[in-house]
């Protein structure tokens, strides 16, 4: 079972104790993020899943989903990959805190705990330093959800959860995961991710029929925008592919 992210003995939420080998320098940072490999995703633990996925499992597949993005020039995919592997890293200290209706922890309290964790990580990296500023800037960008890349990665966060839910239905015969779909699918906006989600739900429906499961419930997507320019997606160019190459931009400013 995952360590509870909060203790309430004094009425004030507190993060789990930080192991001694996670307290000093760059090696302490590396030991800290090892906890992302061992901290399990709370929703699956609460559902009693056998060998529930870790936080790192979730972020890794999101990063690979970024690399599978089929368009050129509409998103900075290098940035998206980095946002994916940073967006939940505060959970190495605080654990995977579920939404307020399930955990009793407010969004404000959750954010405060995660901000404190990020400040600790910056200290381990010698703040102010290039690594500490880079990682905190990426985390802030995801939390603020103002850029096309951060909005796209949030959609991947929702979609990856649905992928995992379908896989638990398939591998463990679990039929209690409808809420996971209902609280995520309607929030997906990017047309590419929405297309992947439609395919996933079609696969899910077919599996339910194949097993003879009854009670399948359809889930409505948010309306499609009239323009394809959602979360950084743009209509395909009508020009030929001559001279087109994969973008090579990465985070930050670089001299040619």
TrEMBL record:
Its EC number is 3.1.3.89. It catalyses: a 2'-deoxyribonucleoside 5'-phosphate + H2O = a 2'-deoxyribonucleoside + phosphate. GO terms for cellular component: cytoplasm. One of its GO terms (biological process) is deoxyribonucleoside monophosphate catabolic process. SUPFAM superfamilies: HD-domain/PDEase-like. Residues 33-182 form the HD domain. It is an enzyme of class 3 (hydrolase). InterPro entries: HD_domain, YfbR/HDDC2. Residues 1-13 have a biased composition (Polar residues). Its cofactor is Co(2+); Mn(2+); Mg(2+). Keywords: Cobalt, Hydrolase, Magnesium, Metal-binding. GO terms for molecular function: 5'-deoxynucleotidase activity; metal ion binding. Pfam families: HD_3 (PF13023). Residues 1-20, 228-256 are annotated as: Disordered. The keyword Protease does not apply. Belongs to the HDDC2 family. Catalyzes the dephosphorylation of the nucleoside 5'-monophosphates deoxyadenosine monophosphate (dAMP), deoxycytidine monophosphate (dCMP), deoxyguanosine monophosphate (dGMP) and deoxythymidine monophosphate (dTMP). Homodimer. This is 5'-deoxynucleotidase. It comes from Sporidiobolus salmonicolor (Yeast-like fungus).
